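Long-time lurker, first post. I've been practising inverse folding by hand and with some scripts of my own, and I keep getting stuck on stretches where the structure tokens seem ambiguous. Below is the full token string for one chain I'm working on. Before anyone asks, I'm not after the true native sequence, just a reasonable design that respects the backbone. If someone could post their per-position residues I'd love to compare against what I wrote down in my notebook.
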């Protein structure tokens, strides 16, 4: 069985992957795919949505005669990431409790 990432979790993963430094699209998808199973065709719409919501900004840099599109967090994106991190910690603890057969607190 494989768990899939979608929705808010995928948004959080993209923001987290971009937190250390701006990254171009292909490198970003390779990085994320190294951790979770997700296709490029799933990630690019996530990037567009995060851009539209003001959580990311993008810019082009020349590389070997063509442009690479880089993505970086905005201040709003950094704030959203902090919110996701807080929510994830609580969510993960609840799932961990359930998987170990414990009772909800």
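-- Answer (accepted) --
I ran through it position by position. Result:
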């Amino acid at each position: 069985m494989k768990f899939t990432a979608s929705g808010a979790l995928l948004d959080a993963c993209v923001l987290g992957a971009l937190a250390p430094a701006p990254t171009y699209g292909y490198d970003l998808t390779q990085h994320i795919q190294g951790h979770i199973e997700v296709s490029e065709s799933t990630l690019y719409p996530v990037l567009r949505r995060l851009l539209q919501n003001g959580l990311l900004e993008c810019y082009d840099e020349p590389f070997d005669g063509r442009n690479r599109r880089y993505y970086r967090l905005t201040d709003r994106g950094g704030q959203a990431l902090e919110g996701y991190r807080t929510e994830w910690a609580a969510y993960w603890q609840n799932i961990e409790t359930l998987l170990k057969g414990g009772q909800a607190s």
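A couple of notes from the structure itself: The chain has one domain: 7-99. The radius of gyration is 16 Å. Happy to go over any region you disagree with.
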